[in-house]
Design a protein that fits this description.
binds (2S)-2-hydroxybutanedioic acid, 14 strands, alpha/beta, binds nicotinamide-adenine-dinucleotide, three-stranded antiparallel beta sheet
Length: about 325
């Protein structure tokens, strides 16, 4: 058994928190040999509800759960954290785009970035889930100048998983037969779920489906799935979001299987002409806790225009948070 690691989770009494914490504590995120200490951050009025969640965590008697800290102080929550999952933020309501949350939520991520910079492990891995996730990750990153920019990531894994599931249903093949799926860009309706590299049982996906299904059904269904869930449930996705967060962190910590890749929102290094510094969804492989962008993919004109459109939206979001004084 390894020594315990510290996992900070913000918004821990919220909807996503309620699905996420139990899976982290069960070992689903970091494996069966890795004990965890949960460091849970909430706003002061939610601490009572958080205490109820802690009682339930205790009642599960998870063998890997080595301790729980609850607090409304980011300096306590992020102290020595090895992993930080920034979930706490307002969800959107029907009729809103995720970017509409910038003014409400952006302000949360500056002080949290500063606190992570001050007290977290120097090797902390940060995942931002709270929307708009890519630009909130940029805010946290820009306020943590003593850490490496690549330690800050945003979640596009839910979109990746949605894309796998839609393609699986269309082709009648299991999700496990699908490789090389990519979500490029923003976790928003401009995202580009790209099938041009994807294979199903080794066959090109685009040889198995019509171009019209790809363009008119697949892409919009994946890109607008969050809104469809809000419409159906009256609340935004929670269990599937928590599951994607587990997948993102597990693959970042433990690596991606040989021959496959996943999608992560990471700081662009200029690959594929994406403006440097934007937190953008890329295809990545992971080894030894380090992710690498998959290089050398052919980019068609169709892909190029979609990749540019979602980069443009992220550039506009970055300009907006600059104006709010949240990044330089
Ligand atoms: P929720 O309202 O149920 O829970 C959010 C929790 O965050 C609340 O308990 C709230 O008290 C807490 N919180 C607010 N400000 C905080 C702060 N400064 N510090 C600590 N905690 C704080 O919402 P939810 O359904 O759990 O969703 C959380 C966020 O995740 C939303 O922004 C939602 O849009 C986003 N989300 C992202 C994805 C994705 O794929 N990236 C998927 C689903 C949801
Ligand atoms: C999702 O994709 O389900 C989340 O980002 C919630 C939302 O606002 O759509």
């Amino acid at each position: 058994m390894n020594n315990p690691v510290r996992v900070a989770v913000t918004g821990a009494a919220g909807q996503i928190g309620y699905s996420l914490l139990f899976r982290i504590a069960s070992g689903a995120m970091l494996g069966p040999d890795q004990p965890v200490i949960l460091q849970l951050l909430e706003v002061t009025p939610a601490l009572k509800a958080l205490n109820g969640v802690v009682m339930e965590l205790q009642d599960c008697a998870f063998p890997l759960l080595a301790g729980i800290v609850t607090t409304d102080d980011p300096m306590v929550a992020f102290k020595d954290a090895d992993y930080a999952l920034l979930v706490g933020a307002m969800p959107r309501k029907a009729g809103m785009e995720r970017g509409d949350l910038l003014s409400a939520n952006g302000g949360i991520f500056k002080p949290q970035g500063e606190a992570i910079n001050a007290v977290a492990s120097r090797d902390v891995k940060v995942l931002v889930v709270g929307n708009p996730a890519n630009t909130n990750a940029l805010i946290a990153q820009q306020n943590a100048p003593d850490l490496r920019p690549e330690q800050f990531t945003a979640m596009v894994r839910l979109d990746h998983n949605r894309a796998l599931s839609q393609l699986s249903a269309k082709t009648g093949k299991p999700v496990s037969s699908i490789q090389r799926m990519t979500i490029w860009g923003n976790h928003s309706s401009t995202q580009y779920p790209d099938l041009s590299q994807t294979t199903v049982d080794g066959q090109p996906a685009l040889s198995l489906v019509d171009q019209s299904w790809y363009e008119q059904e697949f892409i919009p269904t994946v890109a607008k799935r969050g809104a469809a869930i809000i419409e159906a449930r009256g609340a935004s996705s929670a269990a599937s979001a928590a599951s994607a967060a587990i997948d993102h962190m597990r693959d970042w910590a433990l690596g991606t299987p040989e021959g496959s890749w996943v999608s992560m929102g990471i700081p662009s290094d200029g690959s594929y002409g994406v403006p440097e510094g934007l937190i953008y969804g890329f295809p990545v492989t992971v080894e030894g806790g380090q992710y690498r962008i998959v290089q050398g993919l052919e980019i068609s004109d169709f892909s190029r225009s979609r990749m540019d459109a979602t980069a443009q939206e992220l550039t506009e979001e970055r300009d907006a948070v600059r104006e709010l004084g949240l990044v330089k």
